[in-house]
Specification:
It is a single chain. This protein is of the alpha+beta class and about 400 residues long. Helix content is about 30%, strand content about 25%. The strands form five sheets. Strands 1-11-8-13-7-6-2-3 form an eight-stranded antiparallel sheet, covered by helices on one side. Strand 16 and strand 17 (about 340-345) form a beta hairpin. The protein is globular and about 65 Å long. Keywords: Iron, Metal-binding.
């Protein structure tokens, strides 16, 4: 799989100079227009549409900045033991697409392993949550018009071509829950270009933009939406961290107790200031978010139901949380994942580091790295499997 950050976006230069700061296009090298073809093919998209219960708004159509009513392309179905749902009809959906609508499928990483693997790798590199939406369109009509997103996006043109207009921001760092909104886009774009298959685009949050397919060929692209980490998020986390102090947990002074108000403000202000003065505060916040991040997939039948994992050196395992944290101490090493923590002897450090890489690894390779038997390794992995942070495949 392509290393998106290093091989496509330029590694540290992208992280330091472009991410969240300015839009940038990353053209495909010559003869590399098919480099993302394996992420999502038209047959794979058809199979997802055929085999998943994709009720709007997860699957939706958009045209000229408006959602197409589901009644225009869905049929209401009822079941005895399941909730009724609006089932998209292939012929009706295709008619809307011919008329210029754009097909949108949210969180496609949950349904398609190649995209899930891409997302897991990006989440490890960027240390943030990512959701991928797929967009398919056939005409020059715009699905959404000129708009901005409340998160940075990385756009991957899988096939076909898409015309883009970038207008720039009108409100710095806008939020989903904000105190002010600017609904008027700039009058003129600052950049116009066409993304071709294999190209990648980054657009920061709050930057107005619009896109439409190039006439005459279908366009299929993926948009990776990056979860933001703002000062509001850090302060919310910090408030939870401060619950250890009695002064934070205690009732506020009575309204008439002016001296109590002064004492409380001084004491709490000192606690908050001390934490804000800690040079490692932001790093601690990011590490805490990594350790608490959830899992992706992980069903491991039949192994998960068995009493014990077999001591098979060829058994393949991997962590289902992409942002696991390992912490070394003098005599121990800890693994933190999905809000849980395991403490092992320092001897297990190579084993945990291999798991934390997110790549599948065999039980035999893990045992060799830690210098323990495959049976001992299997017993350790059972704990992670039972906790929901490990997946298993093999015989």
């Amino acid at each position: 799989m392509i290393d998106m950050i290093t091989e496509v976006l330029g590694g540290e230069e992208f992280l330091a100079q472009a991410l969240g700061r300015t839009h940038r296009v990353f053209p495909a090298p010559p003869k590399a227009g098919d480099r993302f073809a394996g992420l999502l093919t038209w047959p794979a998209l058809n199979q997802i549409l055929d085999t998943h219960r994709l009720e709007p708004p997860r699957l939706r159509l958009a045209l000229d900045g408006q959602a197409v009513p589901t009644s225009e392309y869905c049929e209401r179905r009822t079941f005895r033991q399941m909730p009724p749902w609006d089932a998209p009809q292939p012929h009706l959906l295709a008619a809307q697409l011919r008329n210029g609508a754009t097909l949108v499928l949210d969180a496609i990483e949950e349904m398609h392993p190649p995209i899930r693997d891409l997302v897991s790798a990006l989440e490890r590199d960027l240390r943030t949550g990512i959701q991928v939406n797929a967009y398919a369109s056939w005409t020059a009509k715009e699905g959404f018009g000129v708009h901005w997103d409340d998160h940075d996006i990385i756009v991957i043109q899988v096939s076909g071509a898409k015309r883009w207009r970038i207008y720039g921001p009108t409100r710095p760092a806008p939020l989903y829950r904000d105190i002010s909104f600017d609904d008027t886009p700039p009058e003129h774009p600052i950049d116009e270009f066409t993304l071709h298959a294999g190209d990648v685009l980054h657009v920061p949050r709050g930057w107005w933009h619009a896109a439409a397919a190039s006439t005459g060929q279908p366009s299929l692209h993926l948009t990776c939406g990056l979860t933001t980490h703002t000062g509001i998020d850090l302060l919310s986390w910090l408030v939870d961290e401060l619950r250890v102090h009695e002064a934070i947990r205690a009732d506020l002074p009575r309204i008439s107790d002016s001296d109590g108000h002064t004492t409380w403000r001084r004491e709490v202000g000192k606690l908050v200031s001390e934490r804000l003065d800690d040079p490692s505060l932001i790093a601690s916040y990011l590490t805490a978010r990594d350790a608490a991040y959830g899992t992706r997939g992980g069903f491991s039948l039949p192994h998960a139901v068995h009493e014990q994992l077999p001591s098979d050196p060829d058994l393949s395992v991997w962590l289902t949380t992409p942002r696991a944290v390992t912490r070394k101490a003098e005599q121990t090493v800890a693994l933190e994942a999905a809000g849980q923590r395991w403490v092992l002897t320092r001897k297990a450090t190579p084993l945990l580091q291999m798991l934390a890489s997110g790549r599948p690894v065999t039980l035999g390779a893990l045992a060799q790295a830690a210098g323990i038997s495959t049976a001992q390794t299997a017993r350790l992995l059972e704990r992670l499997l039972r906790a929901g942070v490990l997946a298993v495949s093999g015989r």
